[in-house]
Amino acid sequence: MLLDRKGRMQSKWKIFIKCMAASLIVGAVSGFLAQNGIEKLILCLLIGLAAYLVRTSKAKEQHIAEAVTIYNLLLFVYVLWIIFFFVFEWQIFAFAWLIALWLLVVVAAILFYSARKPAGVLMLLFLLWATYTGYLNLMACLVQIRLLP
Questions:
Q1: 18: containing domain
Q2: Quick check: is 149 in a domain?
């Protein structure tokens, strides 16, 4: 049993379900909006597992709170990137937004790794995805401004 932010006891199962549900919702929404969802769903479930590992780690409560706050912000920024790129088709703005997302992922990976090493490694998968997606987004920008055919 662990304490939540309000000092109430929570089982590890409750924490696991909350972490996975939040990631599952983000993965499903991003997959639906991008119309190609299975890899996004799997990626979100892996980082949900990373969040669970951090929330149940033996790190200081302040450190866990910082890591979870960055993680929640990262999920929000990620969903907005999906909307900017796939829904509004703002490739240039989405690329700038993706750079901010990439930086958040780096910070989250560092915080997660210092709380619990496997969680940091799982966040590296998200960092690899963000890097690859940044390359694809950049190519879309170059096509949009007619620097590439």
A1: 2-144
A2: no
Q: Which two tokens stand for residue 129?
A: 């995805």
Q: Read off φ and ψ for residue 139, nearest 5 degrees.
A: -65, -40
Q: Kindly tell me the sign of the dihedral angle through the C-alpha atoms of 19, 61, 114, 102.
A: positive
Distance CA 34, CA 75 (A): 15
pTM (2 decimals)? Answer: 0.87
Does residue 75 belong to any structural domain of this protein? yes
What mean pLDDT do residues 30-46 have?
85
Instruction: List pLDDT tens digits, range 116-145.
Output: 999 999 999 999 999 999 999 999 988 888
Name the domain count of the chain.
Answer: 1
Q: Is 10 helix (H, G, I), strand (E, B) or coil?
A: strand
Cα–Cα dist 81/101, whole Å: 8
User: Tokens 């690899």 label which residue?
Assistant: 128
pLDDT at 9 over 70: no
